[in-house]
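Journal club side-thread
Mid-discussion, someone asked how the predicted structure for our own chain would compare to the paper's figures. Pasting it here so we can look after the session.
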Amino acid sequence: MDSWIPHRVTPLTRRDWLMQSGAGFGALALGDLLARDLAAATDRDHRATENPPRPPWLRPATARSVIFLFMEGGPSHIDTFDPKPELNRLAGRPLPPSFKPVITPMGEGRAPLMASPRRWKQHGQSGHWVSDWLPHIATCADELAVIRSCWSNGLNHVGGVCQMNTGSTLAGRPSLGSWVSYGLGTDNANLPAYVVMQDIPRAQVAGGPRNWGAGFMPAVYQGTRIDGGPEPIANLATPAEVGEARQRSKLDLLGRLNAHHQAPRFDQTELDARIKSYELAFRMQAEAPEAVDLASETDATRSLYGLDDPAAAPAGRLCLLARRLVERGVRFVQVYCGAGSRWDSHTDIETNHAKACRAMDQPVAGLVKDLKRRGLLDDTLVVWGGEFGRTPMSEKGNGRDHNPYGFTMWMAGGGVRPGITIGRTDEVGLHAIEDRLHVRDLHATILHALGADHTRLIYRHQGRPERPTVNEGLVCRKLFQA
């Protein structure tokens, strides 16, 4: 032990003796976990090794990274990507008996149907229907694979957002980004593998940080929050009077102190995550400032993302940051658009959704176009959607309630077939009735694109083999097969 660390010899208590002697068996499990961490090195590292270790869950990938654009609050599919002429014809009437009734969180299952006043048009060679709320995304129609048959179990925002992130409506499981970080690692050791951003920094995402947490896995796999303001990563810059050598020596001292503190607390993964975060922070001081600095972007690029429009600028900054991060090897980037359930529209959906669409339409379209022109869309999977959709029945006269029974999401790039439509909802947009994709199917499909078999990607928790899709989920092969 280093001489500068004060210590004293104290007799072991019975509890200490049992813990330390039993920890020898835990070392076997620790060895297995460390082996898994080693095996989760990137494909590039594998290729550089003569006999590379290959985890059993790895398979050929179509995507290297994911950008998940999360419309928190639940966008209305029947007002954006899934037109329903029959809904307008039946507007003002109760839900017909031929449609299976539902009980919604606010008890609006018997409310009259409400028409959608949107103007619809087919776009591109694909003929995707997109409403007049999304004129910019409409220009990307031929890049999109629209999935009109998603469904989930989350009736409220907390459960719905939790399930869309973790596969379960109940808290405590690792987020999808954490599974990706655990199973695939990162392409850049100087940046986090998993980054989370939200367009309204102080807004509370439903359910809070558990949505990007690591659950029962070591805390090192949780998402790293980055803000969208002038200083995306707070306290990152080293003071001018502190050189690299001095900073390195300070970190080394802190590391020895932390290791001494951690030794008798081996079961607290948060300590290990904090220690590793200091090391990552030091490495980030060299590369992260450049990664999050938008000053080098051209005026044309900034305009493409809507940075010259005050309404679109917050989401535009984050979408541009997302491109810069995946460009530099970040594996999983999640962008919350409308953070704080801004898409929730129990009343006045016209005003609410018009504002939410205006805020993200140009940034999202700009991201897809920018990735494509830079050759990044081929290996970057873009995912768009919320925790659920909205009901065809009205709420409070001019709003729509939560609808987890059938809603729309779309994907672009990352090996997904462009310009296709998968699945459908019933004639009023209430239930998914064809090629239904549960949230766990979506997660299985995203992992499949990244080259991870969700049935074999396992983390053992208390002796139980845990999988990212909770032992369920099917890959949607139609998204990849011609």
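Post-session note: The CA atoms of residues 13 and 137 lie 65 Å apart.
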